[in-house]
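This follows on from our talk about sequence and fold. Can you supply me with one protein entry, sequence and fold together? Could you add the entry underneath, on a fresh line?
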Amino acid sequence: MDLTQLANVGEFVGGVAVLVTLIYLAIQVKQGTAALASNRHHDMLDSLFRNSLASTSENRDQAEFVLRAQHSPDELDETDWYRFVNHAFMVYAMWEDAYVSHQRGLIDDEFWTGWDGTGRWLWTGAGFRKFWEEAREGHTPLFQKYIDSEVFPTD
C-alpha cells in the first residue's frame, strides 16, 4: 500500500468517525431535550400546587370563596372580586405558561393535554369567564387567541 492509498483510507476512517460522532451528539441532544421538558413540566406542577391548589385544598374558607366566585361572581363585593382576580390571574398565568411552553416545544403534547384539561375543568366557570373578559389584555396575544377561540369562543 503506497502513501496515497493510506491517506485515502485515513480520510475514509476519519469521515466515518465524524459521522459516528454526529449521530452520538444528536442522540445526546434529543435525550437532553427530553430531560429539559420533563424538568419544565415538574417545575410547572410544583408552582401550580404551591400557588393555587394548596391554598384551596388546605383551607376550607379559601375553597368556599373560590367556588362562590366561580359560580356567582356578580355577588362578590369589590374586595372579594379583587381577591378573586388575583387568584384567577395566577392560575391563568400558569395555564398561559403551559400553553406557550407547548407552542415552543418545551413541553410535549401529553403534558399539554393534561394542563389544558385541568384548566378547562377547574378554571372556566362564570367567575373565570368574567375575569377573562375584564383582564384578557394582561396575557400574551398568542394565549388570548387560544382562550378566545378554544375555551370561551364568542358565537
Q: What stands out?
A: The mean pLDDT is 82. The chain has one domain: 38-151.
